[in-house]
Specification:
The protein is an all-alpha fold and 439 residues long. It is built from 23 helices and no strands. InterPro entries: Lambda_DNA-bd_dom_sf, TPR-like_helical_dom_sf.
Length: 439
């Protein structure tokens, strides 16, 4: 009854009496209290207690029956419910809706509704934390890392003030994810160290798995493969029941083996196990990712035929794949030797980055670099300049890209453009690497 409205006790009683039963204050007060008491309650000058709510609810149900009004039984609990309880009920329904939303604009709108409830009513800390964790997760997977970070910050403040250690650890891990994928590895490791220290007091295996996984991922991205593999040894001591987490752990481990060139056989075995698990659960994103990584594995072994076959296989699972831009880039790299649709795949990858993944600067840099090499080879100056502009516009480290373009124009005896791109490359290098050169 009135599930989507937030009413005071008085407003609720008045609505039931007037709109649903068309009864007078005298009628519902009969044998329960005075008419004046009903008036005082409806004006929110008096609060109901359990005894009075029980008597009034009996009168309300009797009146409904006498008037032949089809109404579910009105309980004392419904009359006693406070506005903040109703707000929390509505808030929980918003959380359920948010879990199903895939579109950013709709998510933003529903999040605003939830935050409005937080501003106006006493929403429980657990509900608020769930909102900000869910939002941090949503924006993280949409590659909107800056917004995910803001959600983490708010959630952390609530977790700390409510002394919720489990959620505090979780949100430090969430923050580390954002820093890993924006290249702030030192900061990510600091947050993971802090999360690990906090977890010592609660000793939660789920949190430990997440901490060690993200440490392994960070060291892999730093190129410190030995340290990364140490954490994978630790992870093997845990039973990972969540298949999504298991796939992530196995994928990064296999990638580490491949990048470090430790063992082709072991990497191949891991990728095929990933493929088997992903197919069992019909997890198309990981099926596509596994195929693309197997393709890269064979490419590194110079088995271009198998590399091309697996690369094409990965595209079959890519209609709404969250890794589509990354997979298109990998497929393009795998098919370079045959020159088959490479430019098309790279352009598709860049288009997705521009629309949905503008913070994935590392991938954008790689894609534009490969396109620049293609346009240099084709001597397509128009598209070459287009890529040069995009590199600057998308705020990536374009120093290597501009050096390639500068070399191209030097070979074409165009000293003016060669000097321009080389000087811009040098400026960007100083900015990104914080080098200081003597002029």
């Amino acid at each position: 009854m009135f599930d989507n409205e937030i009413l005071t006790q008085g407003e609720r009683l008045k609505k039931i009496r007037q709109l649903m039963l068309r009864a007078t204050q005298t009628e519902i007060a009969q044998g329960a209290c005075t008419k004046n008491m009903i008036s005082q309650v409806e004006m929110d000058k008096k609060k109901l207690n359990i005894n009075l709510a029980t008597k009034i609810s009996k009168n309300l149900n009797r009146i409904a029956k006498e008037k032949g009004i089809n109404l579910s039984i009105i309980t004392p609990k419904e009359l006693l419910i406070e506005d903040y309880e109703q707000a929390n009920y509505i808030f929980i329904n918003i959380l359920k809706e948010l879990k199903e939303i895939k579109v950013i604009d709709l998510f933003d709108k529903k999040l605003s509704e939830a935050e409005e409830l937080i501003e106006n009513y006493k929403i429980t800390d657990n509900n608020k934390i769930e909102l900000y964790k869910l939002s941090a997760d949503f924006y993280y997977y949409k590659r909107i890392y800056s917004k995910s970070e803001r959600m983490c910050d708010i959630g952390l403040k609530i977790s700390i003030s409510s002394q919720n250690s489990f959620e505090e650890v979780s949100l430090y891990i969430y923050r580390s994810r954002n820093n890993i994928f924006t290249g702030n590895y030192v900061r990510a490791l600091q947050q993971l160290e802090y999360a690990e220290e906090l977890n010592k007091s609660i000793i939660n295996d789920e949190l430990s798995i997440m901490i060690f996984y993200h440490k392994a991922l960070t060291y892999k991205r730093l190129g410190e493969y030995d340290r990364s593999l140490e954490y994978f040894k630790i992870l093997k001591q845990f039973d990972i029941n969540d298949y999504n987490m298991l796939l992530k752990v196995k994928m990064v481990y296999a990638n580490c083996l491949m990048d470090y060139h430790i063992s082709f056989d072991e990497a191949e075995k891991e990728y095929k196990e990933i493929l088997s698990i992903a197919m069992k659960y019909d997890y198309k994103d990981f099926i596509a990712l596994a195929y693309s990584n197997i393709s890269e594995l064979y490419f590194n072994e110079k088995d271009y035929k198998l590399a091309g076959r697996y690369a094409k296989e990965s595209l079959k699972y890519n209609l709404d794949n969250e890794y589509l831009n990354e997979i298109l880039y990998f497929v393009a790299k795998m098919l370079q030797s045959s020159n088959e649709h490479v430019e098309t795949y790279l352009l598709q990858s860049l288009e997705i980055c521009e629309k949905k993944d503008t913070e994935n600067l590392d991938l954008i840099e790689k894609v534009i670099y490969e396109l620049v090499l293609i346009y240099i080879k084709k001597e397509d100056k128009e598209n070459l300049m287009l890529m040069a502009d995009k590199a600057k516009e998308l705020n990536i480290d374009y120093s290597l890209i501009y050096l390639e373009i500068g070399d191209y124009y030097r070979n074409k005896n165009n000293e003016e453009k060669s000097k321009y791109f080389n000087s811009k490359a040098k400026e960007k290098l100083k900015q990104t690497k914080k080098f200081s050169y003597n002029s």
